[in-house]
Q: What sequence folds into this?
């Protein structure tokens, strides 16, 4: 099974992170990594992380390229997985699913996280299928249901 290693974005891997791209047809589904990092700079509740293959764990300097980017938010008792992107050349190799497993594992370590949730754009069938296969179900809060472009999901655990 594919596993991932998550690492902070620093001066050493910042340029690699902002150069990662999804397929043109997927750009409407996720903010650019530059935007996500800018949001994280001004919001201390956001945790941006670089995604590497698990083979990189233990190496001070990654010997393999970064494959993607993820960011979660911890606020009001919710661990919210805000961003997930795997660069187009590394997609469909299991990294997206492995990252979700790893982020969920991390979120479960925070005592203040009572609910794990995520969202995706309406029409993003790949993300929808992936999240639902991991146990996410519709988040039936009133405000979530009012969103027109975004589907909100929570982990049913
Ligand atoms: C969604 C995304 C992160 C999935 O990453 P990934 O590394 O390709 O996912 P995996 O290889 O772990 O595959 C997960 C499942 O999705 C399926 N899948 C992935 N890409 C697919 C594609 N283009 N078409 C159809 N199915 C696809 C895989 O077959 C797999 O299904 P299975 O577990 O039933 O076999 C990636 O497509 C992406 O970065 N998309 C653009 C950004 C985006 O939409 N992010 C989500 C925002 S909410």
A:
């Amino acid at each position: 099974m594919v596993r991932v290693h998550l690492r902070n974005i620093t001066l050493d891997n910042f340029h690699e992170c902002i150069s990662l791209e999804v397929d043109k047809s997927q750009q409407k589904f996720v903010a650019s990594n530059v935007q996500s990092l800018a949001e994280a700079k001004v919001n201390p509740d956001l945790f941006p992380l670089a995604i590497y293959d698990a083979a990189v764990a233990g190496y001070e300097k990654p010997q393999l390229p970064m494959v993607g980017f993820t960011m979660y938010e911890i606020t009001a008792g919710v661990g919210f997985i805000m961003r997930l992107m795997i660069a187009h050349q590394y997609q469909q190799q299991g990294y997206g699913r492995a990252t979700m497993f790893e982020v969920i594992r991390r979120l479960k370590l925070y005592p203040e996280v009572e609910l794990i949730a995520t969202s995706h754009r309406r029409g993003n069938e790949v993300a929808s299928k992936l999240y639902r296969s991991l146990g996410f179900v519709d988040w039936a809060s009133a405000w979530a249901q009012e969103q027109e472009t975004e589907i909100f999901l929570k982990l049913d655990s």
About this structure: The radius of gyration is 15 Å. The chain is about 25% helix and 30% strand. Helices lie at 14-19, 33-42, 95-107, 125-133, 142-146. The longest strand covers residues 78-86.
